[in-house]
Each structure stands twice: as C-alpha cells, then as structure tokens.
Design goal:
This protein is an alpha+beta fold. It is built from six helices and ten strands; from the N terminus they run ααβαββαββαβββββα. The N terminus and C terminus are likely disordered.
Amino acid sequence: MREILGRRRRLRFRRKRGPVQLEAALTCAAEWQWPVLPGVGLKAAGIRGDRGRGCACPDSECVVPGAHPFDPAILAATTDERMVRWWWTNRPTAPIVLATGGLAPCAVSLPAVAGALALSALDRMGIRLGPVVATPTRWSLLVAPYTLEQLGELLFVKDCVPSSLRFHGEGGYLVLPPSETGTGQVRWERAPLPGSAAPWLPDVEAMVDALVEASTSAPDGGSRLAY
C-alpha cells in the first residue's frame, strides 16, 4: 500500500512540474530574459516503429533537421511566460530555439572535435567561460552580445577564418538543451550555474583566437561546415 501511495505522489509531482522542455524554456525566458521560440522539430516516428530523423519542415534536404524555426518565424521569439507556456503546452517536445543577439546572448559554434580542443586551450589560458552547448556534431560557446561591426573588426585582422567556425549574432538562432534534433540530443557541456540570475557570459574577443586556432588545427583543417 505504501509503495502504491509513493508512486501516486511521484506521478503527481511529475505532472505538476510538467515536461522538461517547458521547464527549460520558462527558465530561459522568464528567469534569464532570453527570447525563445519552439523549433520545427523532427518527423513523427514511422508506423514500423523507426524513429523519424528527418526534419518536420517541407524541405526534404534540410541541413539542420529539427534545429531551426519554421512556424512561428524567428521574429516571434519572446520572453513572455504566457506565450512560452502556450507554445510548449501544445508542442511539449519542440526544440528550444534561442534568438541570439540584441540583448540576448550570442554564440560561436564549431565542430565538436575542434570545440573540445578550444575548451582545453581556453582552460589552460585561464579564460572564464560561460555556458557551452553540445550536440554530437557541434559545440557552441555562449558569449556576451556583440554587433556585426565588432565581429567584423575582430575577424578582419585574421589571416584565415575556417568556414566551419560559425557566428550566431543578431538575427541568428541556436538550439538549447534539452532539445533533440536530427543530429542527436542537445546537452550542456558546461551547464549554467543554478540560480535565478542569468548566466554570466564572456566577451567574444577573449576567445576568438583560440576558436580560430582550434578550428584550423582540427582534423580536415576545420574547413568542412559540419552541422
């Protein structure tokens, strides 16, 4: 009898908390004031039980399956708690898409192997890092907001910037944990510290050299734009 009551209590607790996607989206929007919106997601599982890994958007050759906005578009990103609840109540497994730039975090992403090299190098340099998002193919370092002008000045003096190094600034987006996309599960490689305050973010200037070097020295020279 006690075991049955315990199970019922656990089930009520889970129902009260709600899906993990909704909780994570509310943390980003309501607590951290990061504008988010639901991503397009993946196709439903097939009749035979196979997991549909293709993108739910109309593009059969989508290069970022499940990991981009579709309906609504990126301009709909918001910090409004009611809107976030409505979105993820209707689509509880939708990926969480962060609209980067403006007052929101920006990001720099690179292939996973290069990302591991970059984090090791930055740690050795004593650079304080912010949150780092990881997928099986790419790692993304969240940084303080920057403008296209600032980014242009930083990159202009570089001899070479590998095409696999991507910058998510104003007008861009990034999928956040615990989303699932066509390349696999999105997770925190460096998780934000617990608490209600928005996570601390470093300036991109402090790490761009290490990111360029890691992308260049990674296998294949960092030239392949791996999603």
